[in-house]
Each structure stands twice: as structure tokens, then as C-alpha cells.
Amino acid sequence: MGKNALVLSGGGAYGLSHIGAIKLFEEIGFVPDIIVGSSMGALIGALYSCGFNSKYMESIAVSFDTKLLLDFISSDKKRRRGLLQGDHVLNFLKLLTKNRTFNELDKQLFLNAADFFTGEEVLINEGSVAEAVRASVSVPWVFEPYKIGDRLLIDGSVSDPLPVNIAKKQGVDKIISVGFSEYTEDLEMDARAIYEKKMVKKNIHKIRKNLLKDMYCNDELNNKPRTVSVLEEGFVQIENMMDIVFNATLNENKKNSDLYIYIDLKKFSRMDFRKADKIINKGYKETKKYKDELIKLLDL
User: Fold this and answer.
1) Which residues constitute the domain of residue 189?
2) What is the mean pLDDT of the chain?
3) pLDDT of amino acid 119
4) Facing residues of 163 across strands?
5) 227-247: per-residue pLDDT in tens?
6) pTM for the complete prediction?
7) What does the pLDDT read at residue 73?
8) SS3 for 174?
9) 121-124/174-179 β-pairing
10) CB 64 within 8 A of CB 273
11) What pLDDT score was predicted for residue 198?
């Protein structure tokens, strides 16, 4: 029997719905051989690869107090490169993953991040799992970028929020992907999305060059942190552009998936971490709609 891959997309709090999807997978006996994740999908995928079940992951998600993020704000003005320094996040990730390396995982795991200077996708499948996740969730303006090797890395969704291409390169038999944007076969919309993706890439490059560079590299600006409102506004702009990038790559990724599971989370925000229980439950219900297709496709 060939190997099966599960690809989990990024999406902020939306990514918590992956826990609900995994709960359904557990019920029908689907155990992926390979897991690929981006951003929040990288975090959930890493925990899943560590051997944690959906019940355990849900207990963490619903009990986590987002106010703790305030403790993550850097007090070292010379080091401040974003709203969140990220050291506490990294320590938390090391605790969750028990500081495992990729070689020590129960399942094969592949995560993506983006090169800070070029936006190029970077595959991470060796070394510290916690550090890989830290890099993949490094949302520009929110987290400091994270250096692995000689590359400065930011959120994987900047390059590809649903990295089906990584799974495809592993030569798997079946690819199941989970995302939050609807699939369309409208060719006109396809062409528009491709154009928008090109424009977004230009905009992201411009922001990276003119604004992110200031925040991360200019000591004078780092002497005084940007206000939260400015950071939030910037995050919304980045998030909106990521939506367009996602939509522009979705059809290609879907076509390379044997089954694309769409989780409708329009009633929620990507910042709704306090609604973890509802988002997880929604993920379960939406994935359940694909139960028969999954069983047939995977011969369960």
C-alpha cells in the first residue's frame, strides 16, 4: 500500500480547525504517513507528528490564555524587531514538542517557511521541530523573523499557505489537503487570481523593502516600538494579501490533491483564538461532510 500525505494550511486561528479534522480522521482510521504544514498548520502538524491525538491538542487549544502573549513583548529595545520577540513562543514550542528533532517523530513531517529577503519557499525537515515551527509561524510585523542556518525566515504562508507541492515531491500515493478557501473551476477567476497573485507579490516585496526592513533592521526605529494599532493595521494588510495569495494558488494545489477538504469558517476571524472550541467543532463538522469520500479514496 502506498503512502498517504496530509497537508494542513496556514490561517491563524482558522488553523485550530485542523484539530477537528484530525478528530474525524481518527474516527475513520485514517493515519497519514507524511504530514506537511504551513504556519498554523505547521504547529498542528508538528503536534500530530509528535504522537498527540486530537483530544490532547484540543485541551491545549481551549485552555491557552492569549493574554500570555503580552508577556512575549520584548523589553530589550535594541533587540525589538516586532511586536512579539518570540523567545517565549519558542520555549513553549519546545515544551509542547518535548524538544524533539524531526528524526524522533512518529510520522514524517515537512514544514515550510519563507526567506525574509526573497520570499522564496524554504523546506524544513531536519533539526529542531520547535525551531522549524517558530520559523513557519513568524507572521511579518508580529513576530521577529527566525534564523535557521544562514537564512532569516518568516511565515510559511508568505510563500505558500497550502504546500501541496512539498507532499507531491515525496512521491506519495494519495494527498489529502485541508484549507479555508473555496475551490472554483471558473477559468476567468483563475486568470484574475493569477494576476492578483503577481500584484500581491510585488506589494509584499515593496512592504518588505520599505516597511519590514525598517522594523527589523533600523536601530533608530527600534528605539521606540510601533503602536499596537499600527501593528494591527499592518497585520490586517498582510492578512488580506495572504488571502489573495491563497486564492491564487488554491486551484493549482487542489488539482494536485486527491481530495481537498474545505472548512467554511466565514463566521470567524483569523484572530479568534478565544473561540478555539467552536472553531475545532466546526472543523470536525465540515470534515465529516467528506467522510464517505475519504473512506472510498483511502480504502478504509
Assistant:
1) 4-298
2) 81
3) 82
4) none
5) 344 444 555 555 555 555 555
6) 0.82
7) 53
8) strand
9) unpaired
10) yes
11) 53
**Structural domains counted in the chain:** 1
The residue type of 121 is E
Is the Cα dihedral 171, 108, 69, 285 positive or negative?
A: positive
The residue assigned the cell 509528535 is 50
**Sequence letter at residue 26:** E
Three-state secondary-structure class, residue 153: strand
Q: How far apart are CA 12 and CA 18, in angstroms?
A: 11
Which CATH number fits the domain that encloses residue 254?
3.40.1090.10
Residue 288, CA distances (Å) to 21, 56, 212, 260, 291 in order = 8, 20, 41, 13, 5
